Structure formats: C-alpha cells, structure tokens
Amino acid sequence: MIHLPKEILDILEPLFLSCQVAPFVTPSVAPSVTPLVAEVWYAIFTRSWAVGLVALSGFVLWLVSFPMAGFLLGSANFLPYFLLPHIAGFVLWFFVGERLLSLANVFTAVAALLTAVYPYVDSKELVMSAIGFFSSATAVLVGYRLQLGAVWAFLGLAVGNLLSFALSLAPFEGGVKYLVVSLGLLVLLLPLEGKVNAQKVEREFYRLLPFFFFFYLVGGVMYKGFMEFYGNVAYLSGVEVLFYVLGVLLSYALLKRYTQQALISLASVFLVISLPLFHMGGDVFLNAGMFSLQLGFGFADFFLLLSLYSLRNPLRAYPLGFFAVCAGILTGYFVSLARYYGDFFIVFSYLALFLSVLYYFSQGGKAGEKVKESDPQKPEVRKTPKDFLRELEESIPDNKKKLSGRELEVLSMLLEGCSYEVVSERMGITTSSVREYARRGLEKLELSKEELCALYSENFSPKSATLK
C-alpha cells in the first residue's frame, strides 16, 4: 500500500506533466511551464555538448544514491533484487534493438516515479525489482545519448558521484532526497536531437565481455564484503567517492597522451594495492584500502564507457557491456556472503582480478588477427574503414611498429568523412593531437592522405571518401 504525503503529490504532478516530451522531437511546452523557462531549458540541455554529460550525471546520481547500495537505503541492501531484473532487462533490450527507443522514455518515467514513492511502499523488494527492470532501458538510453556527444561527457561519472555525496550531507528529510534522485532520471526525458548511425559490432568486443565480468566481480565483493567492514571505521561516510572522482578525472587527462590500455592497467594496480590493505585490517588500512579501490574503479568505469562508446552501436554495445558488468557484480556479491570464512573473499578477489587482467592482455594480443575469409559463395560484405586499415597493416614489415589504437581510430573516422575537428570532439583530444595521430599512421602505412583516400574509395567505399 502506498501512502504519499500531499506535499510529494503536489510536487510530482507538475513535474511529470512537464516531462511528457517525445524523445526525438522539439518539445511542445506543457501548460505548467512558462514558454520562457521551457525555451531556456531546451536551449541548454539539448545542446550536443550537454546531451551525454547531463544524462550520465543524472543517472549516476540516482544509481549510486539509491539502488546500488546507496546512502538512501541505509543498512538495507537490496542489491540482488535490483540487479537480477536489471540484467534480464539488458538481455531483452539487446534483442529488441531500435524498438527500445520508443519505450525508453516511458520506462524511465516509471522508474523515476517508483523511486519517488519507494519510501512510502510496503513491498520494497517487489518495487526494487520493478525499478531494476525499468531502469535497464534507462541505462541503455544514457549510452545512446553519450554516443551523440564527445568523450568528455564521461565526466558525468564524476559529477553524478559528487552530487550524490553532496545530497547525502544535505539536511533534507528522506522523502525529499528520494524525490531529488528521481529527478536524475527525469533529465533523460528531455528531447533528443539527432540519431546514431550504428555500425556493426566487431568480434573483438564480444571477446572482451568475459574480462568485464571477471573484473567487476571485485566490485560485487566491494558492495557486500569490503563496504561493510569499511563502513564501521570510515573517517567520513561517503568521502571515498572523492577518490573515485579523482580516478575519473585522471582517466580523462591521461587519455590525451596514452591509450586506453593505460586506464585498465592503472585500475588493476590500485585494486591490487587495495586488497592487502583490507587484509591487514585496522582503521587506517581499511580506509586506505577503500580509497585505493574507489580510485581503481574510477579508471575502470571510464575504460568501460570508452570501450562501449568506441563501437558506435549503443543499442547493441551498451546492453551487452552492462549485462557483463552487472552479472560480475552480482556474482561477486553472492561470493562475499562468505566473508566470515577467513580470507576466502579476499583470495577470491585476487583470483578474479588476476584472471581478468590475464584475459584482457591475452585478447589484446589477438586483436589484430585476420578474421577468416567468408564462404566465396556468399555475397561480399562491404568492409568498414577499420577492416580496410587492418588489411593495409599487413603490408607493414614485421620489424616496424603497427598502427596504435589511437592511430587506427583517427584514420578510420577520417575515412568516414569526419573532419579533424569532429574527430577531436568525438575522442576528447585536441585537433593538433588528431593531426599528429593521422600523420604517424600515414607514415607507418607509407601513404599520403590522398593515396589512402583514393585506395579506400576504389576498393571498399560506395562513395568517394575525403580526408578533411
């Protein structure tokens, strides 16, 4: 039975009326919102630079404050009730494809409404399960919005966590805080201009899924095992979030100079450091262990989003990637139930981390392998710029360096017709860096820009490619 105070109902009614907007059209102003406010709202939050940042910030605020063992739940931990239907939702959305876009706004509004009324319901486990399922569509919608922006929108990971930390310290009563985090979902009901031109998901990504599963097993252990020990001795509840934010900011800074492998390497290092600190126990070591763990997951989450973003097929990549991550967290959560049996879950974390890193770098060595040729009787599939560049790579002598990940990414986007400025925005690096990666790649291929463009147009592209 739901018992909503009149004050909450008075706030919710105009809020939901103002957000009844189709996702891909210019909004018609709701009666409860003045034209001026609606115009300013629309002008700010639908700009390309804000689409992904605002969506991710709002979603992360909601996620870490509430269903993912957030501060709003206190000592209650309904993580399995949230994650099981959440995972089932990702499986469904992977097969539904573009039809999800017509459902995502409705499901997001339902998840926001259930969040706002959650403290007033009796069957909390049932409501949490419903929230888990409906919000899986929201998570994919966040990925879709990220795809329309630039890499720096991933800083929403930091913004959302900082907002959650600030809200946890705010002197509001619980019902108001639930209402605030539900607004984090409602920002995704803002109109969305533009559409993603999806590309085929490459095989390398499917081979990465086990890595995400094993790596985030440690995250599941954190939610149930490490967090309970840390919570008893924390210097300030929630302060560990600042180290997560630091990891995200450093990820963005490092990405301007290094490949994404540097991010996962640093994530692994900080997770490895955290485990012996937890093992040593004591107030100082437990706090230091959690700070190191959060710093590591700041790098890891940035790497996760970057991997999914680079595929440019959000309705396929994000459901699969989030499925693997959530399945890993849930498995780690159940394993951590054995936390009273000596050091079992710490040893398990070491093992999961070792397997994930070993698997990742072993697959990274195979990323450039040539895929078997198709049956000659089948019609030839038009190759993508990356396929074309990988075939050209085979002409590079063994004693010379192959194309780096950044060089491959830059050249492939240039072959698609993107300008240096567009590539710069998508990758979150400077235009001069884009030109430098292009120059290095062309030197390795021993081709000029014009020769590469002509060769691609002649062999693979139905339209003439131009390097701008």
TrEMBL record:
SMART domains: HTH_LUXR (SM00421). The keyword Endoplasmic reticulum does not apply. Keywords: Membrane, Transmembrane, Transmembrane helix. It comes from the Bacteria. The keyword Glycoprotein does not apply. It holds the Pfam family GerE. The chain crosses the membrane at residues 49-72, 78-96, 103-121, 127-144, 151-170, 176-193, 205-223, 235-255, 262-279, 291-311, 318-338, 344-362. One of its GO terms (molecular function) is DNA binding. One of its GO terms (biological process) is regulation of DNA-templated transcription. Residues 400-457 form the HTH luxR-type domain. This is Transcriptional regulator, LuxR family. The lineage of its organism: Bacteria, Pseudomonadati, Aquificota, Aquificia, Aquificales.
